[in-house]
Amino acid sequence: MLKNSILYTLIMNDKVGRYILAALLALAILVPILNIVMPEDSFLHVPTYTVSLLGKYLCYALLALALDLVWGYCGILSLGHGAFFALGGYAMGMYLMRQIGDRGVYGNAELPDFMVFLNWDSLPWYWLGFDSFTFAMIMVIVVPGLLAFVFGWLAFRSRVTGVYLSIITQALTFALMQAFFLNDFGFGGNNGLTDFKEILGFDIQSDGTRLTLFVLSAVSVILAYLACRFITTSKFGRVLVSIRDAESRTRFLGYRVEHYKLLVFIFSAMLAGIAGALFVPQVGIINPGEFSPINSIEIVIWVALGGRGTLYGAVIGALVVNYAKTYFTGAFPEIWLFMLGGLFVISTTYLPRGIVGVAESLMGKRKARSTHGSDDSPDQSDADNDKNIGEVKS
User: Fold this and answer.
1) Per residue in 121-167, pLDDT tens?
2) Cys bridge to 273: 35, 144, 197, 230, which one at CB 3.0-4.6 A?
3) Structural domain contains residue 142
4) What pLDDT does residue 356 have?
């Protein structure tokens, strides 16, 4: 029964993916145990700060998966996925702001502090409903998906492709950043949304809540990976690859290319929105800076460095680059941006298939070397036998 299941087929036919999923599952189990069970002075203890940091990395891994799905398999180089990530984060932030109630600085049970400071009399209509967790989670998916639908419908029907599409996506996220910076827009302006108190009645700063969010992030990456893997190995996924490699020929064969691109673009935007929603309660803030075009470019670097078009490469790239960013921004803050640019140049010039491509190449050479060695050994053995036979005959 299990061997005939789709899940079993997806996992067993993806060797590297199995290792990645196993590592994520182990991380989701071991990190909470080491945080709770091990004493704080133990070498094996994982501090709560590290738990939140790892949870942030996993949110980035989910975001990288979303981009790799559209770029690696459909050829859509989006430089605006940071916008979908930020919109999901703002939807979660609006829910968290509504949970503060009268515990804010101004003690207003209905209005967030920044609205009271700006002399707002009532909540804007687009804030209504965000006191409900269910409604907020629906908006986490719907808002990025709706924006992706409108943008994708206009762009793909007009057959905008290549660098032109990339520029338009970057312009989209820049326009949103400028809009969210405005105080009158109703999202906290430059300061954004912060000072969160609780989520579903639980203290957002407590160790238990931090661990729960971390586990949810790990599980979300696992489920998203399986969903993306299912898409890319299906007939739908084969059409996406065909569009990536030869869009005109695919259209000539009768496929509605714009429909395929639109569907995968919407799904990718929804994944990015979920990543943003998980990100916000773990870092404690969401502001217009998340819309910055440089953030979207960083996502491209994660995927390119890890290995475009592999899914697991996107996860590896996101984790490696963001760990490096955490270390080097502390050790060498003045040169980190130059190092990030250097990573992009190196990955595009010398590592076109990313870290995963280099690893596969080395493993292939090692396997070929071992195979060549095993092929030589029978020949050598035969030569020795002939020599022995000649000596006997003489």
Assistant:
1) 999 999 999 999 999 999 999 999 999 999 999 999 999 999 999 99
2) 144
3) yes
4) 83
Structural domains of the chain, count: 1
Query: Is 387 a member of any domain?
Result: no
Residue 277 falls inside a structural domain: yes
28 in a structural domain: yes
Q: What residues make up the domain containing 144?
A: 6-352
